[in-house]
Specification:
With 224 residues, the chain is of the alpha+beta class. It contains five helices and ten strands. The strands form two sheets. The chain has an eight-stranded antiparallel β-barrel, surrounded by five helices. A two-stranded antiparallel ribbon has the order 2-3. The radius of gyration is 18 Å and the shape is globular.
Length: 224
């Protein structure tokens, strides 16, 4: 369930996906339904490996060159199972089209607005609570950088935005991520969990300082 919620959250965070112009004289070329195609992840690190110390218990090392491969492999396998695309309406509302863990179709409502570089999305809190069983964090408005080329749309977060987002939501995100990357984490004593959590939180700033490039998002297509 935690892995499902993680990928659902990534899908929800990846919502804006496209937009119309604030200039009413320009037509909104993105109205309609866009289908999810593939994840987008660019990463460059100042060192060969990312080493995370988890208190006195263990260290985890990930080769920087392997991180992109690992993420894209995981995202290609899982994200497309849950996130199906987005339908944009001309009243500045959108619906995120999803598939729940049991295969049941679902939608998540939101409102959106756009400028020349960013798309800002505000999720419908009632829909979000229903989809996550009331355990979703309080997600603020989300801003994506976007690039549209014909019938393809790239949406992503950059390093600065991701750093700020993680700072605001690190407790919620780490409570989901740590059990996914540390085998047996859920069975650890509470004291050990807190030591590991605190240690990882202290190292997040250092990891971002050593990150030269970071883009996280996805590509959509509209073949209508």
């Amino acid at each position: 369930m935690k892995k499902f919620f993680l990928f659902s959250l990534l899908s929800m965070l990846a919502i804006a996906l496209c937009a119309c112009s604030d200039n009413e004289d320009e037509p909104n070329s993105l109205l309609g339904t866009w289908q999810y195609e593939q994840p987008h992840f660019e990463f460059e690190y100042a060192q060969d490996s990312i080493v995370i110390s988890m208190g006195q218990y263990r260290k985890m090392s990930i080769a920087a060159k392997d991180l992109k491969t690992m993420f894209l492999s995981m995202a290609k396998e899982k994200m497309g199972d849950y996130f199906k695309g987005v339908t944009f309406s001309d009243d500045n509302t959108l619906k995120v089209n999803m598939s729940l863990q049991n295969g049941t179709p679902a939608t998540l409502g939101a409102t959106y607005k756009v400028d020349e570089r960013y798309i800002e999305v505000a999720l419908n809190s009632a829909d979000l609570a229903q989809l996550t069983g009331g355990i979703a964090p309080d997600i603020p408005k989300i801003s994506f950088i976007y690039q549209q080329k014909g019938d393809e749309l790239l949406m992503y977060f950059d390093k600065t935005y991701l750093k700020n987002m993680i700072a605001m939501m690190q407790d919620q995100l780490l409570s989901i991520l740590l059990p996914s990357i540390i085998e047996g984490f859920d069975q650890f004593p509470d004291t050990m969990k807190q030591i590991i959590l605190g240690s990882v939180k202290e190292q997040i700033a250092t990891i971002f300082d050593n990150t030269l490039k970071l883009e996280l998002g996805f590509t959509l297509s509209n073949h209508n």
